[in-house]
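Folded chain entry —
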Amino acid sequence: MSRPSLLRRLALAGAAFTALAAPLVGAATDLPRDFPRDFHNEEIQTNGTTIHVRVGGEGPAVVLLHGYGDTGDMWAPLADDLARTHRVIVPDLRGLGLSARADSGFEKSNEAEDIVGVMDALHAARADVVAHDIGNMVAYALAARHADRVTRLVLMDAPVPGVGPWEEILKNPLLWHFRFGGPDMERLVAGRERIYLDRFWNEFAADPARFPEASRVHYAELYAAPGRMHAGFRQFAAFDQDAIDNRAWLAAHGKLLMPVLAIGGDKSFGPTMAVVAQAGAVDVRELVIRDSGHWLMEEQPAATVAAIDDFLDGRPTAAKDGRLGRTALSLEQIQAMPMTGAGAGTSGLSGIRTVLLYGDPAKPGPYVLEIHVPPNTAIAAHTHRDDRFATVISGAWYFGYGANPAHAPAKALTAGGLYTEPAGAPHFAFTRDAPAVVRLTGVGPSDTAYVTTPAAR
């Protein structure tokens, strides 16, 4: 997006917010949604502070990071959904919610270490991370400095200091609170926390009534507790240092490689969220939630939960038109993916395990799969309908061309060895005393047609 286009979008967003800055007519019967009953709370000491954490569910870990004006309580609808398939970890950020009071340490690179400590205490070596508002800034610092700990990243409707159009975003008059500081700021707001927070809940919503009255009462009470507004102001005061840190890290280490989902409310950040994410990450999927402002979980919870659920649980796949989509997987991510038995484009032998890394060999479009072959296993001569390339990842792999393995030479290949499987050309392979892992790429639909009977070699 060009600078003029971005400025027009920010100006339009500001006009929309200002028009919506009317008193809230809340539904008094709307109660804050509770976390599922099987969730429990923990107080985790880490990085010089104590973080209040809600934990529940079973499966791969996912960490949910809230923003300003909320606490971890905002994630209850998403936690309820994800707990069916994930272990859900929901901290309150440093100094906020029910975490310990804190006077310093609000640089987002430092708060990222808070989250690393939480993950360590809960034995979560890797996790998907979902974030909103200031949570985006902590999540970006975490993903940048601990890329091996973050498998997928969701950023929702807020900028990241120093990344992308940060300086242009700062010029938006609606973001006056980014620079609200000085010795009297806490004294001015003391006892008026609800008045202060209502400005954000009203002006950043597509419809202020969608931020329920009960939730406003709940969060206003939390932010009125001793030290909480101080922590909130210090979160914003750290932005200048956060921008310096992020620019330096991006220049030295480059963009994030894990898949990123950038979600914006169409009456708020909209597609600008993806512009920010693309400035700091390679593999970015853009999504705009319709009829929503900044408070996505309050305004459009069903659509937001569905989008996040689809992104976190979906295997990297080709685009619907069969073209190659963008995916970046670390070795640890690949090793964490589930293994299956036979499938399209595989040998079909029961002892060989398959990891589908990308796409679907049974459908049109590119795919990538790994076969994990035990020792002393032979794959008889066969053909595929598509051209395929193969790389030996580990072990000793013996490969040859021809319809009769007894009369055709086989070449020994070790890690890094490359070979091709031309469409319709018979070929065979086997292992001896050592197992092997082989990665295959092609463009489906693929199949396997044997020309001889499988037999030991």
Observations:
- The first helix runs from residue 3 to 19.
- The radius of gyration is 26 Å.
- Residues 3-313 form a domain with the Rossmann fold fold (CATH 3.40.50.1820).
